[in-house]
Amino acid sequence: MLRLLDVKKYYKKNKAVDGISFEIQKGEIFGLVGANGAGKSTTISMLTTMSKPDSGDILYQGKSIVKNPKLIREHLGYVPQDIALYLSLSGRDNLVFWGNAYHVPKKY
């Protein structure tokens, strides 16, 4: 289970995410929908441990990924809006490269 608890993120004085809380159960398919500027990308950035919330917590299986980001990196899939592939590498080589960058076990 993945759980956000009153998560907030600011960029200088601007509120990007203002106290979001929700839960995703094992086996659920999840989508985050909202208007431009609503904080979707910032929320995803925090879920993927690319940025830290200013307050609140994010729990994966009851443990904080804010304090220990490695807990979730092997278990989370994310397709970014912008292309993050190296065109000089094959599809498989890109998967291996990014898998190694995030310490995904070779068994996958």
Automatic annotation (TrEMBL):
<dbReference type="Pfam" id="PF00005">
    <property type="entry name" value="ABC_tran"/>
</dbReference>
<comment type="similarity">
    <text>Belongs to the ABC transporter superfamily.</text>
</comment>
<feature type="domain" description="ABC transporter">
    <location>
        <begin position="18"/>
        <end position="94"/>
    </location>
</feature>
<keyword id="KW-0813">Transport</keyword>
<dbReference type="GO" id="GO:0005524">
    <property type="term" value="F:ATP binding"/>
</dbReference>
<keyword id="KW-0547">Nucleotide-binding</keyword>
<dbReference type="InterPro" id="IPR027417">
    <property type="entry name" value="P-loop_NTPase"/>
</dbReference>
<protein>
    <submittedName>
        <fullName>ATP-binding cassette domain-containing protein</fullName>
    </submittedName>
</protein>
<dbReference type="GO" id="GO:0016887">
    <property type="term" value="F:ATP hydrolysis activity"/>
</dbReference>
<dbReference type="InterPro" id="IPR003439">
    <property type="entry name" value="ABC_transporter-like_ATP-bd"/>
</dbReference>
<dbReference type="InterPro" id="IPR050763">
    <property type="entry name" value="ABC_transporter_ATP-binding"/>
</dbReference>
<keyword id="KW-0067">ATP-binding</keyword>
